[in-house]
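During the reporting period the student researcher (J.K.) took over the structure-prediction task from the postdoctoral fellow and processed the backlog of single-chain submissions. One of the processed entries is reproduced below for the supervisory committee.
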Amino acid sequence: MTVNVSKVSLGGCSEPGVYRGIADVLKQQQRNIMTRQHFLRTITRALFGLAIGFGIQTAVEAAPQTFLALDHPQAQAVMAVQRRVTPELMHRNA
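J.K. obtained the following structure tokens:
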């Protein structure tokens, strides 16, 4: 057995513009809920982004200077590869 309730009265008025369907009322409530969910999701993502940003900044500032220096052995290896490969790439036609 199904019951079809098509309109809900708001304020007890009988004017046509005052009636809204149950579906419209539920959709409005769902929009309000989704708006809150969207707001909370946005705030959460922003806070995580700030935490990650500050964490990366702190990690870079705390890194030893030899890790970022040009006399580091791995940096020397990369520069050697660049010196060997770059001239060939510069002479190629685009």
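The committee noted the following: The CA atoms of residues 79 and 87 lie 13 Å apart.
J.K. will present the remaining backlog at the next meeting.
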